[in-house]
Protein backbone atom coordinates (compact mmCIF):
# COMPACT_ATOMS: atom_id res chain seq x y z
CA UNK A 1 0.00 0.00 0.00
CA UNK A 2 1.61 3.21 -1.20
CA UNK A 3 0.85 6.64 0.24
CA UNK A 4 0.28 9.62 -2.06
CA UNK A 5 -0.07 13.34 -1.30
CA UNK A 6 -1.42 15.84 -3.85
CA UNK A 7 -0.71 19.58 -3.94
CA UNK A 8 -1.60 22.10 -6.65
CA UNK A 9 0.05 25.53 -6.93
CA UNK A 10 -0.02 27.89 -9.90
CA UNK A 11 2.33 30.59 -8.60
CA UNK A 12 5.98 31.13 -7.71
CA UNK A 13 7.57 29.42 -4.70
CA UNK A 14 6.45 30.88 -1.39
CA UNK A 15 7.93 30.51 2.07
CA UNK A 16 4.91 28.87 3.64
CA UNK A 17 4.67 26.23 0.92
CA UNK A 18 8.30 25.33 1.49
CA UNK A 19 7.58 25.00 5.23
CA UNK A 20 4.48 22.94 4.47
CA UNK A 21 6.48 20.44 2.41
CA UNK A 22 9.36 20.41 4.88
CA UNK A 23 7.00 19.68 7.76
CA UNK A 24 5.37 16.83 5.84
CA UNK A 25 8.77 15.26 5.26
CA UNK A 26 9.56 15.54 8.97
CA UNK A 27 6.79 13.06 9.72
CA UNK A 28 6.53 11.07 6.51
CA UNK A 29 9.72 10.35 4.57
CA UNK A 30 8.30 7.98 2.00
CA UNK A 31 4.92 9.15 0.71
CA UNK A 32 4.91 10.17 -2.95
CA UNK A 33 4.29 13.91 -3.21
CA UNK A 34 2.55 14.84 -6.47
CA UNK A 35 3.11 18.58 -6.82
CA UNK A 36 1.27 20.23 -9.71
CA UNK A 37 2.97 23.48 -10.67
CA UNK A 38 2.99 26.21 -13.32
CA UNK A 39 6.15 28.23 -12.60
CA UNK A 40 9.47 26.52 -13.35
CA UNK A 41 11.00 28.39 -10.40
CA UNK A 42 9.14 25.98 -8.11
CA UNK A 43 11.38 23.04 -9.04
CA UNK A 44 14.73 24.27 -7.68
CA UNK A 45 12.97 25.79 -4.67
CA UNK A 46 11.20 22.59 -3.59
CA UNK A 47 13.09 19.67 -5.16
CA UNK A 48 14.96 18.92 -1.92
CA UNK A 49 11.67 17.57 -0.53
CA UNK A 50 11.79 14.61 -2.95
CA UNK A 51 8.83 15.55 -5.10
CA UNK A 52 7.13 14.22 -8.20
CA UNK A 53 6.60 17.44 -10.16
CA UNK A 54 3.69 17.62 -12.61
CA UNK A 55 3.48 20.55 -15.02
CA UNK A 56 0.02 22.13 -15.13
CA UNK A 57 -1.54 22.31 -18.57
CA UNK A 58 -2.90 25.89 -18.70
CA UNK A 59 -5.69 24.79 -21.02
CA UNK A 60 -6.95 22.41 -18.33
CA UNK A 61 -6.38 24.87 -15.48
CA UNK A 62 -7.51 28.33 -16.57
CA UNK A 63 -10.93 29.14 -15.13
CA UNK A 64 -11.19 25.74 -13.44
CA UNK A 65 -8.59 25.69 -10.67
CA UNK A 66 -10.45 23.67 -8.08
CA UNK A 67 -11.98 21.41 -10.69
CA UNK A 68 -8.43 20.69 -11.84
CA UNK A 69 -7.55 19.56 -8.31
CA UNK A 70 -10.55 17.23 -8.13
CA UNK A 71 -9.99 15.82 -11.59
CA UNK A 72 -6.26 15.32 -10.96
CA UNK A 73 -7.19 13.24 -7.93
CA UNK A 74 -9.58 11.16 -10.04
CA UNK A 75 -6.94 10.56 -12.70
CA UNK A 76 -4.30 9.58 -10.17
CA UNK A 77 -6.62 7.11 -8.43
CA UNK A 78 -7.43 5.45 -11.72
CA UNK A 79 -3.73 4.66 -12.12
CA UNK A 80 -3.05 3.40 -8.60
CA UNK A 81 -3.42 0.00 -7.01
CA UNK A 82 -6.35 -0.87 -4.78
CA UNK A 83 -5.70 -0.06 -1.12
CA UNK A 84 -3.28 2.77 -1.94
CA UNK A 85 -3.89 5.83 0.22
CA UNK A 86 -4.36 9.32 -1.21
CA UNK A 87 -4.49 12.65 0.62
CA UNK A 88 -5.23 15.99 -1.03
CA UNK A 89 -4.02 19.18 0.64
CA UNK A 90 -4.15 22.94 0.45
CA UNK A 91 -0.76 24.63 0.61
CA UNK A 92 -1.19 26.93 3.63
CA UNK A 93 -0.88 24.18 6.20
CA UNK A 94 1.63 22.93 8.76
CA UNK A 95 2.08 19.24 9.50
CA UNK A 96 2.75 18.30 13.12
CA UNK A 97 2.47 14.56 12.67
CA UNK A 98 1.94 12.06 9.88
CA UNK A 99 -1.40 12.94 8.21
CA UNK A 100 -1.80 9.36 6.96
CA UNK A 101 -2.60 8.45 10.55
CA UNK A 102 -6.21 9.33 9.75
CA UNK A 103 -6.54 6.03 7.90
CA UNK A 104 -5.47 3.95 10.89
CA UNK A 105 -7.46 6.06 13.33
CA UNK A 106 -10.63 5.71 11.22
CA UNK A 107 -10.12 2.30 9.58
CA UNK A 108 -12.40 0.49 7.14
CA UNK A 109 -13.63 3.55 5.29
CA UNK A 110 -13.38 4.62 1.66
CA UNK A 111 -13.67 8.40 1.70
CA UNK A 112 -12.26 10.83 4.28
CA UNK A 113 -12.93 14.52 4.95
CA UNK A 114 -12.67 16.89 7.89
CA UNK A 115 -15.35 18.77 9.80
CA UNK A 116 -14.32 22.13 11.17
CA UNK A 117 -14.24 22.63 14.93
CA UNK A 118 -16.89 25.36 14.61
CA UNK A 119 -19.47 22.64 13.88
CA UNK A 120 -18.78 20.86 17.18
CA UNK A 121 -19.34 21.66 20.86
CA UNK A 122 -15.55 21.94 21.15
CA UNK A 123 -15.90 25.30 19.39
CA UNK A 124 -17.09 26.70 22.76
CA UNK A 125 -19.74 28.66 20.89
CA UNK A 126 -23.39 28.72 21.85
CA UNK A 127 -25.18 25.50 21.02
CA UNK A 128 -27.51 27.06 18.47
CA UNK A 129 -24.49 28.28 16.50
CA UNK A 130 -22.48 25.07 16.20
CA UNK A 131 -25.53 22.82 15.81
CA UNK A 132 -26.93 24.83 12.92
CA UNK A 133 -23.78 24.82 10.77
CA UNK A 134 -24.88 23.34 7.46
CA UNK A 135 -21.50 23.29 5.78
CA UNK A 136 -19.28 21.45 8.23
CA UNK A 137 -16.52 20.38 5.87
CA UNK A 138 -13.50 22.37 4.77
CA UNK A 139 -11.90 20.91 1.67
CA UNK A 140 -8.30 21.74 2.64
CA UNK A 141 -7.61 18.18 3.80
CA UNK A 142 -9.36 15.18 2.31
CA UNK A 143 -8.47 11.63 1.41
CA UNK A 144 -9.47 8.22 0.18
CA UNK A 145 -8.49 4.58 0.01
CA UNK A 146 -8.28 3.54 -3.63
CA UNK A 147 -11.01 1.01 -4.36
CA UNK A 148 -14.08 0.68 -6.56
CA UNK A 149 -16.24 2.77 -4.20
CA UNK A 150 -13.83 5.70 -3.89
CA UNK A 151 -13.26 5.66 -7.67
CA UNK A 152 -17.02 5.83 -8.16
CA UNK A 153 -17.14 8.79 -5.77
CA UNK A 154 -14.49 10.62 -7.77
CA UNK A 155 -16.30 9.91 -11.03
CA UNK A 156 -19.57 11.17 -9.53
CA UNK A 157 -17.81 14.31 -8.30
CA UNK A 158 -16.12 15.18 -11.59
CA UNK A 159 -19.07 14.34 -13.81
CA UNK A 160 -21.48 16.38 -11.70
CA UNK A 161 -19.25 19.43 -11.66
CA UNK A 162 -19.27 19.27 -15.44
CA UNK A 163 -22.93 18.34 -15.86
CA UNK A 164 -25.14 17.88 -12.77
CA UNK A 165 -27.14 14.65 -12.87
CA UNK A 166 -27.29 13.55 -9.22
CA UNK A 167 -30.56 14.88 -7.82
CA UNK A 168 -29.06 15.63 -4.39
CA UNK A 169 -26.39 17.79 -6.00
CA UNK A 170 -28.83 19.51 -8.33
CA UNK A 171 -30.94 20.52 -5.32
CA UNK A 172 -28.01 21.34 -3.03
CA UNK A 173 -27.81 25.00 -1.99
CA UNK A 174 -24.24 26.32 -2.25
CA UNK A 175 -22.50 27.78 0.78
CA UNK A 176 -22.06 31.05 -1.11
CA UNK A 177 -24.26 32.15 -3.95
CA UNK A 178 -22.60 31.66 -7.30
CA UNK A 179 -23.43 30.72 -10.83
CA UNK A 180 -24.16 27.01 -11.24
CA UNK A 181 -21.44 24.74 -12.51
CA UNK A 182 -18.55 27.07 -11.59
CA UNK A 183 -15.30 25.15 -12.04
CA UNK A 184 -12.88 27.74 -10.69
CA UNK A 185 -14.04 27.89 -7.05
CA UNK A 186 -16.65 26.58 -4.62
CA UNK A 187 -17.65 23.35 -6.34
CA UNK A 188 -15.15 21.14 -4.58
CA UNK A 189 -16.14 22.10 -1.04
CA UNK A 190 -19.84 22.34 -1.87
CA UNK A 191 -19.78 18.83 -3.29
CA UNK A 192 -18.04 17.39 -0.24
CA UNK A 193 -20.75 18.85 1.97
CA UNK A 194 -23.44 17.46 -0.30
CA UNK A 195 -21.81 14.03 -0.20
CA UNK A 196 -21.59 14.25 3.58
CA UNK A 197 -25.28 15.04 3.95
CA UNK A 198 -26.64 12.59 1.38
CA UNK A 199 -25.69 8.99 0.61
CA UNK A 200 -24.53 8.65 -3.01
CA UNK A 201 -26.26 6.23 -5.38
CA UNK A 202 -23.77 3.46 -4.54
CA UNK A 203 -22.15 2.02 -1.45
CA UNK A 204 -19.56 4.43 -0.01
CA UNK A 205 -18.17 4.36 3.51
CA UNK A 206 -17.43 8.00 4.25
CA UNK A 207 -16.15 9.46 7.49
CA UNK A 208 -15.12 12.66 9.23
CA UNK A 209 -11.45 12.21 10.12
CA UNK A 210 -11.77 14.94 12.76
CA UNK A 211 -10.82 18.59 13.02
CA UNK A 212 -7.37 17.74 14.40
CA UNK A 213 -6.43 16.73 10.87
CA UNK A 214 -7.41 20.19 9.57
CA UNK A 215 -7.33 22.57 12.50
CA UNK A 216 -8.35 26.18 12.15
CA UNK A 217 -10.67 28.38 14.07
CA UNK A 218 -12.83 31.44 13.62
CA UNK A 219 -11.58 34.96 14.18
CA UNK A 220 -13.51 34.86 17.46
CA UNK A 221 -11.72 31.66 18.40
CA UNK A 222 -8.36 33.33 17.86
CA UNK A 223 -9.01 35.37 20.99
CA UNK A 224 -9.76 32.30 23.11
CA UNK A 225 -6.73 30.58 24.65
CA UNK A 226 -8.37 27.14 24.32
CA UNK A 227 -8.94 27.56 20.57
CA UNK A 228 -6.09 29.79 19.38
CA UNK A 229 -4.21 28.06 16.57
CA UNK A 230 -0.85 29.29 17.83
CA UNK A 231 -1.48 27.50 21.11
CA UNK A 232 -1.85 24.21 19.20
CA UNK A 233 1.56 24.51 17.55
CA UNK A 234 3.80 21.88 19.12
CA UNK A 235 0.88 19.59 19.99
CA UNK A 236 1.20 16.51 17.77
CA UNK A 237 -2.42 15.55 18.43
CA UNK A 238 -3.26 18.48 16.14
CA UNK A 239 -1.85 16.79 13.09
CA UNK A 240 -2.53 19.59 10.60
CA UNK A 241 -2.77 23.31 11.31
CA UNK A 242 -4.51 25.19 8.49
CA UNK A 243 -3.65 28.88 8.27
CA UNK A 244 -6.70 29.96 6.32
CA UNK A 245 -7.41 33.45 5.11
CA UNK A 246 -6.37 36.17 7.61
CA UNK A 247 -4.27 33.74 9.63
CA UNK A 248 -1.52 33.67 7.01
CA UNK A 249 -0.88 37.28 8.02
CA UNK A 250 -1.35 36.69 11.74
CA UNK A 251 1.37 34.04 11.87
CA UNK A 252 3.62 35.73 9.27
CA UNK A 253 3.67 32.80 6.87
CA UNK A 254 5.49 34.73 4.15
CA UNK A 255 8.24 35.97 6.45
CA UNK A 256 10.96 33.32 6.43
CA UNK A 257 12.72 34.93 9.39
CA UNK A 258 9.65 34.30 11.56
CA UNK A 259 7.81 31.40 9.99
CA UNK A 260 10.34 28.61 9.62
CA UNK A 261 10.76 25.08 10.91
CA UNK A 262 13.37 26.04 13.49
CA UNK A 263 11.12 28.65 15.12
CA UNK A 264 8.10 26.37 14.91
CA UNK A 265 9.83 23.41 16.56
CA UNK A 266 11.35 25.62 19.28
CA UNK A 267 7.95 27.07 20.16
CA UNK A 268 8.71 30.69 19.28
CA UNK A 269 5.85 33.16 18.92
CA UNK A 270 5.07 33.49 15.22
CA UNK A 271 2.94 36.60 15.64
CA UNK A 272 4.12 40.20 15.84
CA UNK A 273 2.60 43.31 17.32
CA UNK A 274 1.63 44.42 13.84
CA UNK A 275 -0.02 41.12 12.91
CA UNK A 276 -1.87 40.95 16.24
CA UNK A 277 -3.17 44.48 15.76
CA UNK A 278 -4.33 43.66 12.24
CA UNK A 279 -6.44 40.67 13.26
CA UNK A 280 -7.83 42.55 16.26
CA UNK A 281 -8.90 45.39 13.99
CA UNK A 282 -10.63 43.01 11.59
CA UNK A 283 -12.37 41.28 14.46
CA UNK A 284 -13.65 44.49 16.02
CA UNK A 285 -14.79 45.87 12.66
CA UNK A 286 -17.56 43.28 12.61
CA UNK A 287 -19.35 44.89 15.53
CA UNK A 288 -21.68 42.72 17.56
CA UNK A 289 -21.79 40.18 14.72
CA UNK A 290 -18.17 39.27 15.48
CA UNK A 291 -19.36 36.71 18.06
CA UNK A 292 -21.58 34.88 15.60
CA UNK A 293 -19.63 34.95 12.35
CA UNK A 294 -17.57 31.85 11.60
Short description:
Helix content is 34%, strand content 16%.
What does this structure look like?
There is one protein chain. The protein has helices at 15-27, 42-46, 58-61, 65-77, 101-105, 127-131, 148-162, 167-170, 187-197, 219-222, 247-250, 261-265, 273-284; strands at 3-9, 32-37, 51-55, 85-89, 93-95, 111-115, 137-145, 206-208, 240-242. It is built from 13 helices and nine strands. Helix 1 (15-27) links the parallel strand 1 and strand 2. The protein has a single domain, classed as Spore Coat Polysaccharide Biosynthesis Protein SpsA, Chain A (Alpha-Beta Complex), CATH 3.90.550. Helix 4 packs antiparallel against helix 7 (148-162). By secondary structure, the protein is of the alpha/beta class. The mean pLDDT is 94.
Question: Which keywords apply here?
Answer:
294 residues, alpha/beta, Spore Coat Polysaccharide Biosynthesis Protein SpsA, Chain A, 7-stranded mixed β-sheet, 9 strands, globular
- Number of DSSP-assigned strands: 9
Helical segment tally? 13
Secondary structure class reads: alpha/beta
Overall residue-averaged pLDDT value:
94
CATH architecture: Alpha-Beta Complex
> Low-confidence spans: pLDDT under 50, at least 5 residues?
none
Helix content: 25-40%
Oligomer: single chain
**CATH C-level category:** Alpha Beta
Number of domains: 1
> What is the CATH T-level topology?
Spore Coat Polysaccharide Biosynthesis Protein SpsA, Chain A
Order of helices and strands: EHEHEHHEEHEHEHHHEHEHHH
Within the largest sheet, what's the order of strands? 3-2-1-4-7-6-8
**How much of the polypeptide forms β-strand, as a percent range?**
15-25%
Amino acid sequence: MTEHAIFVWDGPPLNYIDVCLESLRLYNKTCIIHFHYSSESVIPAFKRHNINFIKINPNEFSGRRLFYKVDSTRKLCNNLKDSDKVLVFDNDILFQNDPFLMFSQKPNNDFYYTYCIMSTPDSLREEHLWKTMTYRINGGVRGLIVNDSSKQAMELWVSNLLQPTWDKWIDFAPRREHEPNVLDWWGDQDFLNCLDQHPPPFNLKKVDAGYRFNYYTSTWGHFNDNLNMGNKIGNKDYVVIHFKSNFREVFNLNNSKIYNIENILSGKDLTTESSRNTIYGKFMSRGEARFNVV
